[in-house]
Specification:
Number of strands: 19
CATH architecture of the domain at 2-258: 2-Layer Sandwich
Largest sheet: 5 strands, antiparallel
CATH superfamily of the domain at 2-258: RRM (RNA recognition motif) domain
Radius of gyration: 48 Å
Strand content: 5-15%
Number of helices: 33
CATH class of the domain at 2-258: Alpha Beta
Distance between the termini: 123 Å
Structural class: alpha+beta
CATH topology of the domain at 2-258: Alpha-Beta Plaits
């Protein structure tokens, strides 16, 4: 009788069949099957097993199940879903295997059908047995044949291996109605047994299932019993042979399905029950795993950035093994392309390409002149810098010079690049790109770019903050998973230190191996002693990388990044103390040396100062690049520019673009004047709050420097605007940082003040010569002086009122304060008179009273 299973959620069709020994029930079942077939197959052409999932069997036929697989066939069952791991044996191959194992068949028997089950590593085989034999006798003979044929086909070792691993083929009689399906239900040692009718007891289940293999556990239940086999193979055989079997005169029908084993995950339980301990441990393991995987990659990337020339194509071209392949290829390529040379040459000559060649040669000459003529004055300093590096004694070098003086070109292009021993291992760090970063992710990305630190995952910062917040809410304490940007930047520089040390060690290992190879060819008394790594690096300065830290400063452009400069100074000091690198600082900020003094308090720095070129060299440089002769007009144009290379190159670009030299200089002076008035004389604030000056102070300095080349610090502090020495030093240092002025020191003490850029001197005169601007800022200057005198008078009057209140007659003190008040009052009157004169001045005859400041 065909029924819908009441238990299965998928309403799987189950077939109930009575064993052959119960003839009455079997006839009832056969009648139901025949009725079903007639109803369902009446309009169908394909009624095979693959279409219906049911194997038909007549009264003189027997159905057996052959099991070929091991107890670990669940791996194959999952991989069989993929095309790459499809079953290797077809139905015909399985049929030959069955015939080989089951032969010889009894007289009059016939193998009628084979249904292979690739997922379960088995097959259903249907036989037609002789009329003079019973089904039981036929099945017994088949089993005996399988056992004998298996032993004959294998040696003793294979039979022992099959017995231990349970790989020998087995044959079972199918007692129920097998349901052949290809659903995504994979084999499992756990079987779910459902009963249609009266349930079976635990003992009855054991008797029914034990013949297929060892049973670990049985749980009997009226609704659904569980039978747990020791291995999957036994469960697979039991499921195919018993499902659909009817017992107790048709009152009980068994339906079997594979049940997934619910295993207890102790790790998940531990995490869920001990979150305060487990989550920090997991995060630590995750971080450790990330370090193990990514840090070696990052270290290699940093090494590649430092030793870029060693990994370049030109470096590998020197390899002998590479030349064996490259030279024949290059010769063949030249042979193929040589036929086009004559044609190309003729075409170029026809179209007049000689002019282009001439211009190209001229441009190359210009580059050579630019790279040679301008640096002749610094040739000795370049030799000194190389000597300091090759001496290899505490090579902590500071190259100072104003902005635009060509410090970077001097060090990289004209000192290191010209020496093959020094240009192979160079790392340049641009500090300004780090100090200008306005977000944490931008700062980390810029640092990674400067160091060659790759890969870097800036997006993890945002995620780690949320994770840390979630862990804190869950456990009550922070996990420490999210790090501050200071810690992250410090870790990146620490990894860079490891990379630099590894570079030194690799060179030392090459040296040690070469000495070992040489010692093998020498006698014992002639063998060379291998130096220690410290001694090797002391004798081979070229083995140590050169770290060039450009645009090192006292403060960052963004206030939150001020930690960068002390961190870099500390990192560089560690490299010097460990003797694994040469460090060169390029700075235009004299105050930045304070960071270096704090990082290496007992170190004597090697200092190299770069100044502007002389007028003769500047004029010669411009004439050579422009390919013109020096004239008086050109000399007059170059005089405001001085020897600052930044301004000279800007002037050359303007002239090359077709601008008249006089107009070019005039326009540059106008732009510089606009920069000064906008940045230094206006009241706008800088983002980092570093503008601790006022317009009156800048105006006073401009007036003095427009008339003199140098002003004395002692003369400057005589002005009421520069009375406080600490505030004055802070103001002057800030103005020097922004290149408005340059401070000259004698034995570390500020002595003289000059213009920061030579062009600014002409800009000062341009600003002061503008009547409208002069009136505006001269009035503001005098107003500031008046305010200072008013403040002084208020303080003096407060002291006088205090003296009168106590009633103590201090005639001497009163006379002193009165004279001070009178002097200040007189100054206020004079200042106000000057302001009135400025307001009424129309440009006919400018008064020079404003220069009589002190």
């Amino acid at each position: 009788m065909l029924r819908l299973s009441r238990i299965s959620p998928l309403q799987v069709i189950s077939v109930k069949r009575t064993p052959p020994v119960l003839l009455q029930t079997y006839r009832h079942y056969a009648t139901d099957i025949e009725d079903l077939k007639k109803q369902s197959d009446s309009t169908e052409t394909d009624n095979s097993v693959s279409a219906t999932g049911v194997i038909d069997k007549r009264s003189n036929e027997v159905l057996l199940y052959y099991s070929f697989a091991t107890s670990r066939n669940f791996v194959k069952s999952y991989l069989s879903r993929l095309a790459l791991f499809a079953p290797r044996y077809s139905d015909e191959q399985v049929k030959k295997r069955v015939e080989q194992l089951s032969s010889p068949l009894p007289q009059g028997s016939l193998l009628t059908e084979v249904v292979a089950l690739a997922r379960d590593s088995g097959a259903f085989v249907k036989y037609q047995f002789p009329q003079d034999e019973t089904a039981k006798q036929f099945i017994t003979q088949i089993r005996n044949n399988v056992a004998v044929n298996e032993k004959e086909s294998e040696n003793v070792v294979s039979r022992v291996f099959d017995y231990i691993t349970d790989r020998a083929p087995k044959v079972y009689s199918v007692k129920g109605v097998p349901w052949i399906e290809d659903l995504k239900r994979f084999p499992s040692p756990k079987l779910a047994v459902k009963f249609e009718g009266d349930p079976l007891t635990e003992e009855e289940l054991y008797v029914l299932f034990r013949r297929y293999g060892l049973i670990d556990d049985i749980k009997a239940d009226p609704n659904e019993s569980i039978v747990l086999f020791h291995n999957i193979r036994a469960a697979t055989c039991a499921k195919h042979c018993i499902t659909g079997m009817s017992l107790n005169n048709g009152n009980t029908t068994i339906h079997i399905q594979f049940a997934p084993i619910k295993r207890k995950n102790y790790l998940v339980d531990f995490i869920s029950n001990h979150t305060k301990i487990a989550i920090p441990i997991l995060l630590a393991l995750l971080a450790g795993f990330a370090v193990m995987v990514f840090d070696p990659i990052r270290e290699w990337c940093i090494e590649y950035k430092i030793t870029h020339s060693r990994h370049s194509f030109d470096y590998f071209k020197q390899n002998k093994a590479f030349q064996l392949l490259y030279i024949p290829y290059r010769a063949l390529a030249n042979l193929v392309s040589s036929s086009y040379d004559y044609i190309d040459t003729q075409i170029h000559e026809v179209v007049g390409d000689k002019d282009c060649d001439t211009s190209d040669s001229q441009s190359m000459d210009e580059i050579k002149k630019e790279s040679n003529m301008f640096w002749q004055e610094r040739f000795e300093k370049s030799k000194q810098l190389k000597l300091w590096i090759l001496e290899n004694l505490n090579s902590f070098i500071i190259v100072k010079g104003p902005q635009g003086s060509g410090k970077e070109e001097f060090v990289l292009d004209h000192t290191l690049a010209s020496d093959d021993r020094l240009n192979s291992k160079v790392l340049v760090i641009e500090c300004d790109k780090l100090s200008k970063a306005r977000s944490e992710n931008t700062l980390i990305g810029s640092t990674a770019s400067q160091l060659g630190y790759f890969p870097v995952f800036t997006w993890t910062n945002s995620i780690s903050q949320f994770v840390d917040l979630g862990v804190q809410g869950l456990t009550g304490q922070k996990s420490g998973f999210s790090e501050s940007k200071e810690t992250q930047i410090k870790n990146m520089f620490s990894l860079a230190t490891q990379s630099i040390r590894h570079i030194c060690e690799s060179d030392y290992q090459k040296y040690a191996k070469s000495v070992d190879r040489k010692n093998k060819r020498l006698k014992d008394e002639d063998k060379i002693e291998i130096l220690r790594q410290e001694d090797f690096l002391a004798q081979h300065p070229e083995s140590k990388p050169i770290i060039v830290i450009n645009k090192f400063s006292r403060r960052a452009d963004v206030h939150s990044n001020d930690f960068i400069y002390p961190l870099i100074a500390e990192w560089a000091s560690g490299l010097i103390q460990n003797n694994i690198a040469h460090v060169i600082f390029l700075t235009a900020d004299v105050g930045s040396v304070q960071h270096l003094n704090e990082a290496l308090p007992n170190q004597v720095f090697k200092d190299l100062s770069l100044s502007d070129a002389s007028m003769m060299s500047s004029k010669q440089y411009v004439c050579d690049v422009l390919n013109v002769k020096g004239t008086s007009t050109l000399s007059e144009c170059l005089e405001p520019l001085g020897g600052r290379m930044l301004d000279l190159q800007a002037f050359i670009r303007r002239v090359k673009s077709g601008e008249d030299p006089s107009n070019a200089v005039t326009e540059m002076i106008t732009q510089a004047a606009e920069l000064i008035t906008t940045f230094f004389l206006s009241s706008q604030k800088i983002d980092n709050g570093d503008n601790n000056w006022n317009s009156a102070q800048v105006w006073l300095i401009m007036k003095l420097l427009s008339k003199k080349e140098v002003i004395s610090y002692d003369d400057l502090i005589k002005s009421p605007l520069f009375k406080s020495s600490k505030q004055t030093m802070d103001t002057l240092s800030t103005l020097e940082k922004f290149d408005l002025i340059s401070l000259k020191r004698d034995k570390g003490v500020l002595n003289k003040i000059t213009t920061g850029r030579p062009l600014f001197k002409a800009a000062f005169s341009n600003i002061i010569g503008d009547l409208r601007i002069w009136k505006l800022y001269e009035t503001d200057y005098l107003t500031n002086l008046i305010n200072l005198e008013v403040g002084k008078i208020n303080k003096l009057e407060s002291e006088l009122s205090g003296i009168y209140k106590i009633g103590n007659r201090l005639d001497g003190r009163i006379d002193y304060l009165s004279k001070k008040i009178e002097a200040s009052n007189k100054k206020i009157v004079d200042y106000e008179k000057e302001i009135a004169d400025i307001a009424s001045y129309n440009g006919d005859s400018k008064s020079h009273s404003f220069l009589g400041i002190f």
